[in-house]
Model the fold of this input.
Amino acid sequence: MIKLTKLNGEEFVVNADLIRYVESRPDTYVTLTTDDRFIVKESLEEVVSRSISYSRLVRLAPAA
Done:
């Protein structure tokens, strides 16, 4: 899960595994596999960075 910020300042958490693509036009649009779309304050690069960090954390975590 990654934390993002809507344009109105409201923070929310999204499952990074559900991100289909991220666009910069000039606002940053995040589209999920469910076809939900969000416009966020974070840059495209920041969304990608957070998604990569999340993926590394999940895949490197030891199994319980």
User: Anything to note?
Assistant: The radius of gyration is 12 Å. Residues 44-60 form the longest helix (17 residues). The mean pLDDT is 94.
